[in-house]
Design goal:
Strand content: 5-15%
CATH class of the largest domain: Alpha Beta
Number of domains: 2
Number of helices: 10
Structural class: alpha+beta
Number of strands: 5
CATH topology of the largest domain: Structural Genomics Hypothetical 15.5 Kd Protein In mrcA-pckA Intergenic Region, Chain A
Radius of gyration: 18 Å
Helix content: 40-55%
Strand order of the largest sheet: 2-1-3-5-4
């Protein structure tokens, strides 16, 4: 599974930080083997088509957030259908994905990767406004407070220390002492810092 995550990053040609702290170390596969997986890492020499470019950007975002094609397509379609006049669809899409419970837990520093955050959510380790929520895709809202059901578990033994040197994004208010995170505002595209062209994704689904 760990090797598969590295192959995803190598195939796309960039770091998606799918393995947490290892991605920041010299052991990162993208640094050690900066070429696509396969025979001698050879890439296609022909220029990709417009469709190919759009698909490539789509795969970056899906892989970054660990979303299936169905999940991601639903987010895009819901964003397009429910958008208001003059609304920035890119920011609306990012807000929807970023406010998933698993992503909020990751952004708050409660987990070293989105995969780990999703696993913790599935196992019922997170509370939203004091109530247990074990659905990783649960949509949090502005004002929601996320906390740990039991911060004394072994899985969280180093969390208090790691949070001391961690800075949460501006849209999350992190209380490092109480280990709680509150959604203060909707995240925007700049907050996500995605290595992808979001506009091409809407073009892909408009075909």
């Amino acid at each position: 599974m760990q090797e598969l995550k590295c192959k995803i990053c190598r195939r796309l040609g960039l770091k998606l930080f799918l393995k947490g702290e290892r991605c920041y170390s010299p052991k990162c596969a993208v640094l050690k083997r900066p070429f696509a997986p396969g025979l001698k890492g050879k890439r296609r020499t022909s220029a990709p088509s417009e469709y190919g470019k759009q698909l490539h950007e789509l795969q970056k975002v899906k892989s970054c957030y660990k979303l299936s094609e169905t999940q991601f397509a639903n987010y895009v379609n819901e964003t397009i259908e429910k958008r208001k006049s003059g609304e920035d669809v890119a920011n609306k899409l990012i807000a929807k994905i970023e406010k998933r419970l698993d992503n909020v837990a990751y952004r708050a520093g409660f987990a070293s990767s989105r995969s780990k955050a999703r696993q913790l959510a599935n196992h019922g380790h997170f509370l939203v406004n004091g109530k247990l929520v074990d659905i990783p895709s649960y949509q949090t809202k502005i004002g929601d407070k996320i906390s740990l059901k039991n911060p004394n578990l072994a899985v969280f033994k180093d969390l208090a220390l790691s949070l001391k040197k961690y800075n949460a994004p501006a849209w999350i208010e992190l209380d490092k002492e109480k280990i709680t995170a509150e959604i203060k505002k909707d995240p925007v595209l700049e907050d996500a810092q995605l290595p992808a062209e979001i506009t091409t994704i809407f073009e892909f689904y408009s075909r």
